[in-house]
Specification:
It is found in: Cytoplasm; Nucleus. By secondary structure, this protein is an alpha/beta fold. It is built from nine helices and eleven strands. It has one domain: Rossmann fold.
Length: 260
């Protein structure tokens, strides 16, 4: 899950994608947080204060459900307020450890939450996973041009490193007032928003997620927004997007099997 921009909701989307995929109990889902300097996945998943345990087969992920394991540098810090002040090589070493030394077991989906930008962590994860034939990247943006500008760079990055793009999610796309039901554009799409950008760059738009104050509350309390607000327009939008990602991955695997 990528975006050139910070604060667009990558970690929230990664967490809800993990919850959505893990709703199918026959699937094993892993969520890896490689935002080394700003690990927010432990908080969002309700796992703050959890520790990583070492076993004979490596580090054990922290489990939210039996079929949903999580790993983050946040579990290795003595306090959530500790700053990780590392240069690139040390970050890359930890990402490699997360992939090599964590006993993930057999997983159907590995979701990787990334920091903003197109540098060390992004290059490392693409390089280390290159042999696994990554299904693709989900790119998250908000409607305003200042966000789209950085997201275009991220799409360019994906193309340069030959990382397939599953599609773009437009987050914080309008707000429906719960009282009067009027829709407001909190972040006006002055240049046409994600829809126009996707048309121009020939990328799929997976969907638009409206703002809902409950999303922030759920993240702060470590609960799944999908379970807490099942009737919210944002939940319906998330579910549609998650279904489209599932269909894409299944299709991708069928094509892989034909090639092999």
């Amino acid at each position: 899950v990528l975006s050139g921009k910070g604060g667009v909701g990558k970690s929230t989307f990664s967490a809800l994608l993990a919850h959505g995929l893990a709703a199918d109990e026959t699937k094993q889902v892993a969520l890896l947080d490689i935002d080394i300097c700003g690990p927010s996945i432990p908080k969002i998943m309700g796992l703050e204060g959890e520790q990583v345990h070492q076993s004979g087969s490596g580090w054990s992920p922290v489990y939210v459900e039996e079929n949903l394991g999580v790993m983050s540098v946040g579990f290795l810090l003595s306090s959530p307020d500790d700053a990780v002040i590392w240069r690139g090589p040390k970050k890359n070493g930890l990402i490699k450890q997360f992939l090599r030394d964590v006993d993930w077991g057999e997983v159907d989906y590995l979701i990787v939450d990334t920091p903003p930008g197109t540098s060390d962590e992004h290059l490392s994860i693409v390089q280390y996973l290159s042999a696994t034939r990554i299904d693709g990247a989900v790119i998250v943006t908000t409607p305003q041009e200042v966000s789209l500008q950085d997201v275009r760079k991220e799409i360019n990055f994906c193309r340069k490193v030959k990382l397939p793009i599953i599609g773009v999610v437009e987050n914080m796309s309008g707000f429906v007032c719960p009282k009067c039901k009027n829709e407001s554009q909190i972040f006006p799409p002055t240049t046409g928003g994600a829809e126009k950008m996707c048309q121009n760059l020939s990328v799929s738009l997976l969907g638009k997620v409206p703002l809902d104050p409950q999303i922030g509350k759920s993240c702060d309390s470590g609960q799944s927004f999908l379970a807490e607000a099942p009737e919210s327009p944002a939940t319906l939008s998330y579910r549609n997007i998650i279904q489209r990602i599932q269909e894409y991955c299944e299709q991708h695997h069928l094509q892989e099997e034909k090639i092999m």
